[in-house]
Amino acid sequence: MTKTSATYIGGNRVLLKTAGGFKLYVDSRDVSIAPHLILDGVWEEWTEAVLRRLLSPGMSVIEAGANVGYFTLVMARAVGPHGRILSLECDPSLAALARDNIEINGLHRIARLDERALGERNGRVTFYRTDRHLGGGSIVAGLEQIPHNPSDQRQPLEVEMTTLDDVARAAGIEPDLLKLDAEGAEPAILRGGGALLDSDRPLTIVLEFFPRFVREAGDDPAALLQFLESKRFALNAIDERRRRIEPVTAASLLERESAELVMRRDAR
């Protein structure tokens, strides 16, 4: 296992060095990704390996749910100085960490943080922060990320929300890849990206798929997969053990508790 170093610097912050060589601030109170990064220097290494293969210099990415910015840094390095990463994170404490992590790694010319939620409309929305699993916040009211675990206290917070189409248009980005990790809000985010999804350009979507989360948001997981296939996206999922993309069927995905989807559409 790769040896990593971590130092508590006060203010609930730990500064560590990842296995990939990034400097990274995390919140010492977090019990989700912070322990893995502090001790192992990595988080979901199968997703990282696939992102590195999907991205190449000069590409553009829109990311929803940056958390502390770990994958933001990975993607910024992959697209290089001529690429662009626009990452959205509406939890103020996580956004502050992500913004600082971009800066201390010298990637602020490539990656930019937007402190808004993504959804199907513009306006204000209630975001529910969590106090222990810090990446488990969501705009889905009542979402229980870990069933039968009442340890997280949820704090409602009013935040600004925008849409995929509007944020891409305002930033002047034609994304090559969308990375969506929004705790059940993914269908709403996609509904706000009609122009992007109807485009003739090639596009890859990397999406965290929890059928239960989608149902708790009031959406139908089967309808979500059918919608994506109707937009010419081929369904694939990451094989965590092999760290590669494998073709899957909608029926098999609906039987899983979760999957990291990689959906690819070629140019028309």
What's the helix and strand layout?
Blueprint: E1 6-10, E2 13-17, E3 23-27, H1 34-40, H2 45-54, E4 60-64, H3 70-79, E5 84-88, H4 92-104, E6 111-114, E7 117-118, E8 123-130, E9 154-162, H5 164-171, E10 177-180, H6 186-191, H7 194-198, E11 203-209, H8 211-216, H9 221-230, E12 236-239, E13 244-247, H10 250-254, E14 259-265
Parallel strand pairs: 4-5, 4-10, 5-6, 7-9, 10-11
Antiparallel strand pairs: 1-2, 2-3, 8-9, 11-14, 12-13
How would you describe what is shown here?
30% of the residues lie in helices and 28% in strands. With 268 residues, the chain is an alpha/beta fold. It has one domain: Rossmann fold, CATH 3.40.50.150. The protein has a six-stranded mixed β-sheet with strand order 6-5-4-10-11-14, sandwiched between helices. The longest helix is centred in the middle third of the chain and has 13 residues. It is globular.
The CATH top-level class label: Alpha Beta
CATH-defined architecture: 3-Layer(aba) Sandwich
Instruction: State the CATH topology.
Output: Rossmann fold
Terminal Cα separation, in Å? 44 Å
Please give the share of residues in helix.
25-40%
CATH superfamily placement: Vaccinia Virus protein VP39
How is the largest sheet built, in terms of strand order?
6-5-4-10-11-14
Strand content: 25-35%
